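Example 3.2
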Amino acid sequence: MLTRALLVLLAAAWAGSAAAQPLADEEEPVTELTWRPSVALTSLGYDTNVLNDHDDPKRDFVTAVRTGLRPSLRLGRAVVAGEVALAYTYYAQLVRERGIDGTGRARVTLPFSRFRLHGSGSYFNQKERFNEEVDARARHTATEAAVGVDVALGALTALTFTAADRRVDFDESGVAAGLGRTLDRTERAFTAGLRYELTPLTTVAGTVTVGRHRFVFSPERDGESAGADLRIDLADDAILGGHGRIGWRRVTLADPQVPSFEGLAGSAGLTARIGGSTRVGVGARRDLTFSVGEVLPYYVESAFGGSVGRTLGERFEIGARVERVRLDYVRLLDAVDPGGYREHVTILGGSLTYRTPAGLEITFHVDQRLRRTSADISRNYDSLRFYTAIGPVLSF
C-alpha cells in the first residue's frame, strides 16, 4: 500500500517539478553520482557466554566482517541516497551461530519552493538477537516503508506529515520457529507535526501519532496506539550535541485480560565536549516492547546509561560506558502476583583506540553483561567479551 503511494507521489512530483519551479531557477540539470564502499573488521575476539546460558555457558572465538556501499545520486533537485551492507559472523566451534546479515536502505527527496516530498524504504535480514529479551540469534526479516511531505510555513517553520508501515517476520525453522508465533506482525503509523528551527544548531518539533498493530498468529495482541511528543535536535558538531524526545503514549490490546499501557515514552542521547579532549555522553529511553512470551504479552523497557572518552595525544583515546536496562512485564488483570515480573540487564564496557596515520581506527573492547530476574533464575546470566575492531579497512 505504501509502496504504491510512494510511486504515485514521486511520479506526480517529478511530472510537476517544472511547473513548480520559478522560471528564474531554470538551469542546466545537475547530475552527480557518488559511491562510498567500505570494509571493516567489526569483531575479532572471545566470548565467555555466546548463548547467554545460565547453566552451561558456551565459550568461543568470534570473527565478524562487514562490507558496505553507500551510493548517492543527485538528479536536478532530486536526491536519492542509499546504503547496502553485508556482514558475516563466524564462530570457531558453534557452527549454528554463524550467519550472514543483509541490510538495505534508500531515501528519495524532492524539494520544491514551498514543500518537500520524501520517501524511504529499508530491508533487514539478520541472524542476530532481536532485543534484550530474546537470547537466540534467530533469523528474522524486517521491512519498512514511509512517505511524507514537509510544508514550509516560513523560513524557520514547517508542517510535517508522514505515513509509515513496518513488518517483522521470523524464520519458521530452527531456533526461530517459536518466536514468529508471538512476534510476527505489521505496524502502521500516521504522524503530523510542527518543526521550528530555533537556532542554526537547534531544531524543535512537536508531533502527534496514531497507529495500529496486527499480529499474524496472535490476534489477541492486535490493537491501537496513539501518542504525542516533543523533540529537540542539537547539531553533532556543537559543544552539546544529540537529541531528546519525551511524550505520552497509549497502547491497547484486543485481549480484555491485558491492561492497556499509558504513560511516558521517549529517548535521549546527548554528548558534551569538555576542554577539547574529553567527551561525556548520557542516554535514556522508555517505551513499550512486545514480548516473546505468550502469557505476558508486553513489557516496558527503561534504560539509562553514560559514557566518557578522553583523547591521549594525537593517536590514542580511552573510553568507558555503563548502561542499566529494566524490563517491567505487564501484569494481567487476573494475575495472582501483585508485584509482576522484572528483569535487569547491566552493561559495563571499556575501550582503547589507536588511530593510524593512514586513517585506520584499531579499538580493543572489553564488555561485560549481567542479567538478573525477579523470579526466573534460569534466565540469569553473566558474559564477558574481549574483541578488537578495525575500520574502515577500505573506504573511498
